[in-house]
Amino acid sequence: MSANIVVEKLRFVPVEEQNVELVERKGLGHPDYIADAVAEASSIALSKYYLKKYGIILHHNLDKVLLVGGQSAPRFGGGEVLHPMYIVVAGRGTEVVINEGNSLEYVPIGTLIIGATKNWIKKNFRFLDPEKHVVIDYKIRSGSADLVQTYRLGLKSVPLSNDTSFGVSYAPLSTLEKLVYSVERYLNDGNVKKSLPEVGEDVKVMGLRIGNKIKLTIAAALISGLIPDLSHYLSVKEEIVNRVTDLTAKVAVGYDVDVYVNTADKPEKNVVYLSVTGTSAEHGDDGATGRGNRVNGLITPLRPMSLEATAGKNPVSHVGKLYNVLARYICDKVVNEIPKVREVYMEILSQIGRPIDEPLMAVVKLVVDEDSNFQSVKSDVEGLIRSELSNVTRLTELIVNEQISIF
Amino acid sequence: MSANIVVEKLRFVPVEEQNVELVERKGLGHPDYIADAVAEASSIALSKYYLKKYGIILHHNLDKVLLVGGQSAPRFGGGEVLHPMYIVVAGRGTEVVINEGNSLEYVPIGTLIIGATKNWIKKNFRFLDPEKHVVIDYKIRSGSADLVQTYRLGLKSVPLSNDTSFGVSYAPLSTLEKLVYSVERYLNDGNVKKSLPEVGEDVKVMGLRIGNKIKLTIAAALISGLIPDLSHYLSVKEEIVNRVTDLTAKVAVGYDVDVYVNTADKPEKNVVYLSVTGTSAEHGDDGATGRGNRVNGLITPLRPMSLEATAGKNPVSHVGKLYNVLARYICDKVVNEIPKVREVYMEILSQIGRPIDEPLMAVVKLVVDEDSNFQSVKSDVEGLIRSELSNVTRLTELIVNEQISIF
Amino acid sequence: MSANIVVEKLRFVPVEEQNVELVERKGLGHPDYIADAVAEASSIALSKYYLKKYGIILHHNLDKVLLVGGQSAPRFGGGEVLHPMYIVVAGRGTEVVINEGNSLEYVPIGTLIIGATKNWIKKNFRFLDPEKHVVIDYKIRSGSADLVQTYRLGLKSVPLSNDTSFGVSYAPLSTLEKLVYSVERYLNDGNVKKSLPEVGEDVKVMGLRIGNKIKLTIAAALISGLIPDLSHYLSVKEEIVNRVTDLTAKVAVGYDVDVYVNTADKPEKNVVYLSVTGTSAEHGDDGATGRGNRVNGLITPLRPMSLEATAGKNPVSHVGKLYNVLARYICDKVVNEIPKVREVYMEILSQIGRPIDEPLMAVVKLVVDEDSNFQSVKSDVEGLIRSELSNVTRLTELIVNEQISIF
Amino acid sequence: MSANIVVEKLRFVPVEEQNVELVERKGLGHPDYIADAVAEASSIALSKYYLKKYGIILHHNLDKVLLVGGQSAPRFGGGEVLHPMYIVVAGRGTEVVINEGNSLEYVPIGTLIIGATKNWIKKNFRFLDPEKHVVIDYKIRSGSADLVQTYRLGLKSVPLSNDTSFGVSYAPLSTLEKLVYSVERYLNDGNVKKSLPEVGEDVKVMGLRIGNKIKLTIAAALISGLIPDLSHYLSVKEEIVNRVTDLTAKVAVGYDVDVYVNTADKPEKNVVYLSVTGTSAEHGDDGATGRGNRVNGLITPLRPMSLEATAGKNPVSHVGKLYNVLARYICDKVVNEIPKVREVYMEILSQIGRPIDEPLMAVVKLVVDEDSNFQSVKSDVEGLIRSELSNVTRLTELIVNEQISIF
Asked: Which of A55, B284, C28, D11 is the one with CA 20 to 30 A from A215?
């Protein structure tokens, strides 16, 4: 098995030292984020139901959620949703379970998906009401699982890969990556929402670094009902700039950062970025699962990325999900626990039908300190990978219990 | 105008004296009733919004609601909804209003329809949760109204018929008709629901009278969560029979009434009529607007009936609604206020484009006591009709304020 | 069994001799007609598939079709469909068949329904292209049938009623009824379509008779692509009036008939009734199964009518379909074959679970010639009914082979 | 403007010389490819309509297509589609055009989208019939364009970016990339389809290179109707291996290539990869726009990639599309036309509101031959970029006329 692990030295200028860097994060209320979150919340709800009732997570894949934007009429001090947005959860699920004695049990798959979607919205938005502003439908083709046979085959054994696919990740985050991530998390932080409630949940942050100059472009849907007039709007924008500037002083020490907010505004023509509910999905912006952040919460076009959606896939056998999460997990551990490693890149490749703890190939590329002993580092990394691979099923639990963020 | 009113004597054995009578009522929780109620609740919500904002009810027609039944797994003492039912409200509405100075105002037509539907369900069901058990969507093609022009044309004037159509009704109800209606109303009465909570909202009553023998067949979806076992189920059925028998003793004096409940049950095979939510729509029964009760709340195949759905149409210019309501209203008044009239049948025919208080033709057929002076009765009836026609727009208010039941 | 047949004399002025009569027919291209036809075509396609593959028609009920009108922009000499109409076929069907040895066979229910719908449109319209102008979807909850068990229970035996329901009909048609029916059939006749191709398939005929004066109001969607200008439009309308007037001279001898076509036109404002495809469903008019013609092809508010949709239900056990068809069939036979009968009305009532050839009650009311021997007529009628009841399963074949029209 | 162009040397081991490489291509019939193709075909149809009618491409964005897999029952020698797949095209489009004199013109947006989708399927599949096997719907929120104002603003000027976004690409393709691409193109080539018709359109190729050893894993849905039995199936697989091996001998000279086809097959259990129509979308596999190939037709996790979908966006102002296409175009030119350049990577960043020929930043990183004069190369590259940027609007034409492939 160890033959499948390749650890090699990467001759590469660390990202931080390259001249140009581009990073983006689609925040909590962005239509693509919502589509990811709904897919994942639905998968978790199914997983928990299966676990509770049958002790195992049965097959499902809900990684195709489409959000069709609604229509709204925000105005200073108020506004209305004219047409709710429309969310359809598409995919597969196990709906019928064949118990001993050929008796059938039905899984309330529709009720679970709709409930999970509404709950996620309720927990994460203050002004988007899932009962008023969203139509939620689903198109799930369902299959059946023969539980008796499943148990006979040995539940406790390691699941088999359901696809030939790969996961990729890297560590650590660059300063710009940390900054972009932090800015969105800050603006959607519970306390910040209390002191600056006008900022809607739909916050998108784009960061460009050229040398040590950073341009942060923030698009933030402001809540129309909390903003009585243009001057209030402008003061909120100013406050965002100030706060983000303060934050960058901590996160991006030594960089020269310019912060731009809602650059498409033309205040003189009353063109500003208002929303009734806090998301641009209320008026025409559509979203889809797998079109937003990668497993580390970022879009990093100049870094290796997988195109597999991590959201919505089952966390047991779907390597398009598991191996991305695993790669990220291992990379973090490598840079945190193994000295002399400056950057690590990892790819894990599955082959359909192989046990998931035996990937076809795991490749790690390291940028190490010049004074390091590569053979020693390599050996440590291999050990760590072997250990994590043998523990891979533990990730399933972390995912289902939402102890790990995946977009 | 009076030339359009025809009053004639009907040589006809009154229904009560005929040998065979057939009457049906689809109760509150029947899928067709739900489809009617959702259509009407949506129309009322739009009407109220238009009235409040613009002083008039703008054009709409929402009389095509489809309810696709869900899937459920009731069992003694509990059960679950597996797949929510699906309701789609189809039709037309005025979504854009052109104000003075060509400024546009948008009507939150989607939010209104979905809100009205959910509210109706919440108010009328105890165990059907619109947030968990129903997916509500809509397909409304929207038009615009030029308010300026509308006002110029004179809002206060009488609206014009939007179609060539007719309304029909009759009075009084026969004993069987009263009985069928009362039985459903009784079983869905608030107090009865307290003392006999196991009876779901989906109650369908079919009455057959041959001579003075009546067979009442009641289909009532019982609430699975409140019924721990078969013997409890059977005792509830018995209680329904007893109570309905008591009721018939008051409503159908002199008739010999047999009461049957859930006749398709086969208790020995555990085949009984249970539901999680109180409606058969939870498991496979579909519904559509206009397929259930007529304007008097009954299906009476041996009496004149209009096929126009009263539910969902706008209550201003849609004669398919207004003339049915009007015919019923006038018939009730005729038998209540004009002596010697035993039965009255009425048809009112519109012509597209005519003011609604000037129908193309209003025909009244009377069964009068033998000792009556027909000319005198006729003259009274004509007077009453003229008076009601000139007041026809008042019906709009009664409908919008739900002071009149129409299915 | 004969105890369930009641034949009685109706003391009733024959409809023809009453003063006022109202009759309507929604023609081939009317949205409600399309909804009926799509439901029935789908049921027939399933029935034929089941018959061919399994020798019996398995359970299904497709009597809830919703047609949401599209959007179009007709103009003299051309025009376009902007948005296709949307048809959704809702209901139940048997999708899985369990064969001997517990092997499963799947029924291509989706492909059959969509194919049948498109074929019906192709066969019946010249300008409505199912591939371009219609979106066809379906929402069918499917069940399974255990064929082995079905055969064991005895296929050849008479099916059991699936509901407590009734069928009603009457014969003969009055002159006005014949006229309304004939006019629509004439305008949609293949040869007439050749000589007067401008007339679209959506023809609605409303007839009002007062004494011997008849007003026929025809709404006919004219094909925009075939009508270069207003004067051509007006000449087509004139031609319709002329031809229909000729027809009435044959069908309604002795009546004074006025013919009106497209009365809402305001030619001076260019408001005329044009359509690109031949149906008003192309622009905003919605349709639903069961909202149009009754089993005899007519809407007759002053005659007994059933509210059951005949279209789309399975023709084996669904009495809401079979008993309407049967009642009509028997009524026709009675007036054709039994002398001295002037009018016949019939109701047939089922009880869920009874064999369909043993209705709970069959009531026949006769208007007979004054010189007739009622006992003899009654006896003949009873004999005919008994004979037809014992042959009721034959209707299934007539329906599936489309040898009988039912709306 | 030249200040925005950065050209720098990349200190980087060329991909070809790195130890591990991973490349994937989702072929013509893959569900994600279909979703991309439907989005793009719809955008092109709209663009051509707008161009023909108004001389410009009006605003639209159709980059959210969801394909929900159908259900089928393939078997050796035949099989059936049980449930058609479902495609919904979501997005925005300009539906109303305001002409001089405030007259309105409507765009047949629905008919265009459905027509384009069906045409694409017809042209690209032999056994997938868009009329039988696919339900096509759309959810487009539409806006209006004031043509008069548009012209006044100056149509001929350069469009403004509609978003802050970026495009990335690189050149040349590595040997593995060329191979993966070629294999799919070969198997979907018209002539190959004639000599090896059993190979369906859904071909997915995954390539892994370790040193000079390549593993090609091909998933190919074989056409059930053309394969009478298992031995024929196995011989087709063998033929694919042979032919692809021949192809690799030409494309990947000097590499040691292993070819695997349908590795999940278990012939001994009759588990093989058959399809009725040629795509896995017929049975449960879903697809979505933007989840498949990048602008160069490949998924290259170890190369820079943009997450923007190129398909479906308007080709005039949507930089998420244009800048990806442009980056690829420029990279190809650089390696083809400028000597001494071994590899080129490019990022182009827009800022909302800037003319599209003036990106905020264009970064080019070069791997050059050791003996090259970098200043001279750099100057040539800058010149080429400037020239291409000033010609950027020409790409619009190439895209609309399908002279350039973008996924």
From this structure: D11
